[in-house]
Amino acid sequence: MSLAVEAISLTKQFGQIRALDGVSFNIKPGEIYGLIGPNGAGKTTTLRIICTLIKPTTGTIKIFNQDATKQPEKTRQIISYLPEESGAYPNLTGLEYLQFMAKLQSKPDTNLKATIDEAIQICGLGDRLKDKAKTYSKGMKRRLLVARALMTRPKLAVLDEPASGLDVLHAYHIREIVKSYVKEHGVTVLMSSHNMLEVEYLCNRVALVNKGKLVVEGEPKALKAKFNSENLEEVFAKVVGFA
Amino acid sequence: MLKGFTTILIKELKELMRDPKILIGMIVLPLIMFPVLGLVMGFAVQTAQTEAQRATLLVVDNDCGNWSQVFVGYLNSTMNVEVLNNTSPQSVIDRGLLAQYNSSTFVVIPSGFSDNLTRHNAGEWNVTGVVNAYGVFNGGGGIFSGVGGSTVTAVIAGFNRAVAPDVVAVSQSSVIKGTITEGVSVSVLSGLLLTQSIALPITIMVMLTYAMQIAATSVAMEKEEKTLETLLTTPVDRFAILMGKVSSTIIVAGVAAVTVLIGYNYMLGSLSVGIAGNSGGSVDLVALGLVPSVGGYILLGISLFFTLLSALALAVVMSAFSENVRGAQALVGYIYPLIFIPAMALIYLDVNSLPLAIKAIFYAIPYSHPILAAKAVVTGDYGTVVFGIVYVAVFTIVIMYIASRLFATEKILTAKLKFGRGKAKQHSE
User: Domains in chain A, please, with CATH?
Assistant: First the structure.
C-alpha cells in the first residue's frame, strides 16, 4: 500500500535562513499525524511544501506516490489545506463561501449540492450560514473553514493549527469534527499544533520539530514511555534539552 | 497639563512618523512633487519666452495708406515684422504663410484704416481704425497660449498712447484647424480649454489613486486573511486566479471610464453656453469643432480604460510584495508622484511647448496619456492618442506578464519589499 505522505530529506532556505534542515517522515493512509514544535520550528514551511505552495530547496515530497514538486496540479486535486488563522471573504455569506470553494475544488463528477450539504452539517452553523462572514466570531469562522477543508473528502487534509486561539467549546467541536470525519471517511490528516493535549488526543503519531529539524517521531503513548514523561509537553522539553 | 498627554503625544508622533504611508504622502511627495513641477514650469516659461523673442509678426497691409505705414513702422520698432500687401486672411492660412514666416499670429490692416485715422484726428472721435489680429489656436491649452494676441494688444496700446487715445482698436479672431473664427480670441479659447484641462486630470488622478488602492487592498486582503493560500492550493489554474482578480477590476475600470466620459461630455456642453466672445455672442465649442467627435470619445475611453488597467495591474504586482493591507497601500503610494506630477503639470502646460527631454519623460509615464489624449481628441490629433493607447497597452502587457510569473511561483507568498534595506527579501514561518 502506498504512503499518504513521504517526505525525504526536505530542506528549505529563505535567504540566509534555513527554515528546514533534512526533514523526513512518512504518513500512512487514514492516519492523523501531528507536527508539533515552537514558533519558527518549520511546521508551516513543511505544510506549505506538502500543499505545493512553496518548493523545497532540496529533497522530495510525495503525496500518494505523486511527486508534489513535479506534479503540483495533480497533487492539488487530492489535498485540502487549512492555513493557520485564515479567514473567509468578509462580504460573502458563509453559504456563498462554501459554494465558491466547492466549485473551485470540485471535479467534473462532483455532486456540488451533496458537498455543500456535507459542509453545512460539519460546521453546524445552521441559519448563521446566511449571514456575512464578517459577522462571525473567531470560533464560527474556524468551524466554517474546517468544514470547507473537509467537505470534498480530500485524500489528504492539511490543517495548520486547526483549533488555535479558540475557546474550549469551539476547540472541542473542531477536534470532534476531525476525529469523526477521519473515522467515517478514511481521510488522512496532517496537522500542526502548539497544543500538546490536542495532539495527544487526536493524533496517531506525532513528530517533534525544532529549529528546522525533526527531532523525534512516534506514537504519543510510546514517546511518553520512552522519555518517561507524563505528557508530550514534557517529552518535547526533554528532547530539546529544556528540562 | 493633562496627565499622560505628553507620553501619548510622543507615542502618537513616533507611530505616525514611522508609518511609511504618512512619510510618503505628507513629506516625501510634496518635497518631490512641487520642486519637479516648479522645474517643469520654469522650463516652460523659458521656452515660451525664447519662442516669443524669435516669433515674427506677419502684417497684411490691405490699406497701404499713410497711417498704415506709420502703424507698421511702430510695430516694426518693437517686434520682428514681415509685411504683405493685398492678401485676404484666409489666403494667408491657405498659402501656409504663417509656417513660412515662423509666426503664430498675424495682423490685417483693412482698407480704409488710414482714412478713419485721419477723420479721428480731425475731430471725429467716434471714428477709429480697427485692425484684426488672428491667432492660431493649436489646442495645447497651456497657460502660455494666446501670448501672441496679448502682445499685439499691448503694442497697439503703446501706439494709441503715442498717437491718440483709442485711435486704433483691435479685433481678436482665431484660426482653428485652418479655418478663421471671427470674434473669438485665442486666449478665450485657451481659457476654456484650461477649464476643461483642470477637470479631467483631477478626475483621472482621483480615479487612478482610488482604483490602485482598491486593487492593492483586494490582493493584500487575500494575503492577510490567508484566503490566497487556500486558493493557491485548489486545483485551479493560477493564471485564472490572477485574471479573475484583474478582470473584476477591468469591469470596474470600464464602468469608471464610461462614467468619466459621460460627466466630461456634460461638462463640455455646459461650458459652451454663456462664454462670450469679442462679438458679444456666446462661444459654441461644438460649432467650432472643439469638442471630441464620437470617434474621439471612443479613443479617449480606450485610453482611459488601458491606463486604469495598467494602474490596476501594477497595484496587483506591488501588493504581492506586501504582507498586509497597510503595507500594500504604502507600496502603492510610491506610484502616486507618477500620477500627480503629469496631472498637475499638464493642467497648466502644453506638452508640445516643453523641451524634448521633459516631453519624453511625460510620454514615458503611462498616466500622462489619458490627459494628453483628452487635449488631442479636441484638435483631432488622433495619432497622439493611438500612440498613447499602444504604449500603455504594451506597458500593461509587460506588467501583466510579471504578475502572472509572480502568481505562478511561491514569490506571491514569500516576496517582500523592504525599502531602506534596498532589496526584496523573503520570509519564513
Answer: 5-239 (3.40.50.300)
